[in-house]
Amino acid sequence: MTKVLLITGASTGIGAATARAAAAAGWSLGLAARSAEKLRDLSEELGPERALPLPLDVADWTAQQAAVATLVDRFGRLDAAFANAGLGSTAPGVEGGDLDNWRAMLETNIWGLLLTAKAALPELRKTRGRLLLTGSRAGRTAIRGSIYGATKWFVHGFAANLTEEMKEWGGSCTIIAPGMTDTPFFDSPKPDALEPADVARAVLYALEQPARVGVGEVYLVPC
Fold this sequence. Notes:
With 223 residues, the chain is α/β, with parallel strands linked by helices.
């Protein structure tokens, strides 16, 4: 039986790399992000019979509900969801921070992630499935004035609490916590950073464990 994975932030970076790795491993996919064109191209690359593009803004509750419903209608089930969409800071620190950027980060990194979890959980309960959340090294250490880091501290704390809720019906929650990763998240290349494919392998590791094994966190950093 083919398993089904929903990925948010699927159009580039870690999300797109995870989609490619999961498709190669035999998963069917729901690809969610804002860019309909990039999702369409990725779906065609992976095969429309395997990958369903789901253009949306993760901060839109109605759109998230509709995406899960459309995905389940197409493939019949949902076995895992990867809440991966995220935004970074445009200015350092608190005093010099940009208020519009702060709000966008909160809406994507926290609110959007919460909506993905809430939309996916009823279907994941049916399959005793897995929910994966993109955390960060920034959510495990203090960084001077980092609002982005604070949003990831929330994600790590939420994952711990959600793990206890999902245990009640046999599901599991995993934090994928990479250090700096060379993605379009940054304005310039980061040759000494992790590659998106490195993080995708961590996601597949968590997804492909036996049902009796819950993976609480995969923490990976550049050597």
